[in-house]
Amino acid sequence: MPRKPFGLVVLGVLAGVIGVWMASFLLWLEPGGLDGMAVRAAVTVLAAAFLLAAEAMIRMRPWFYRACKALVWVYCVIVMTAMFAEMGLPGVFAGAVVLFFSLGVILPFLAYVRGKWVAMTGPVPPVLPVRAAPGRRP
């Protein structure tokens, strides 16, 4: 069994702490109306993504890089959706600004995780083009 990289374990613990912290929001959020349900759903999905990525990084699952990519996508979708729902069309620009400044954390995080994933699994082979069988036209 390969030794766990310390940085990956630290990132996993931080993701777990953030996930538990976000899940604790559910205890004091008021369940009023459709807005309250939407906020609860967003917090639940984001907390679940954080906890899934944390578990995958701490236990060195073979899919921990995909779990981290899913976490980033969930974060991006929730930020853009929340901004659009709150402010309408100008919220899309505001969400893009928030995501732009979030790239300072997201890109180094994904680069580090991908580097550890490639070191563990090896490089991904290139996708070869599909060729037609002899005598058949593509």
Write the layout of secondary structure elements.
Elements: H1 6-28, H2 33-58, H3 64-87, H4 89-121
Helix pairs in contact: 1-2, 2-3, 3-4
Notes on the structure:
By secondary structure, the protein is mainly α. Helices cover 77% and strands 0% of the residues. Helix 1 packs antiparallel against helix 2, helix 2 (33-58) runs antiparallel to helix 3 (64-87) and helix 3 packs antiparallel against helix 4 (89-121). The longest helix has 33 residues, at 89-121. The chain is globular and about 65 Å long. The termini are far apart.
Quaternary structure of the protein: single chain
Distance between the termini: 46 Å
How many helices does DSSP assign?
4
Strand count: 0
Shape: globular
Strand content: under 5%
Mean pLDDT: 85
Helix coverage percent: over 70%
Radius of gyration: 19 Å
Largest sheet: none
What is the chain-wise order of helices and strands?
A: HHHH
Unreliable stretches: none
Structural class: mainly alpha
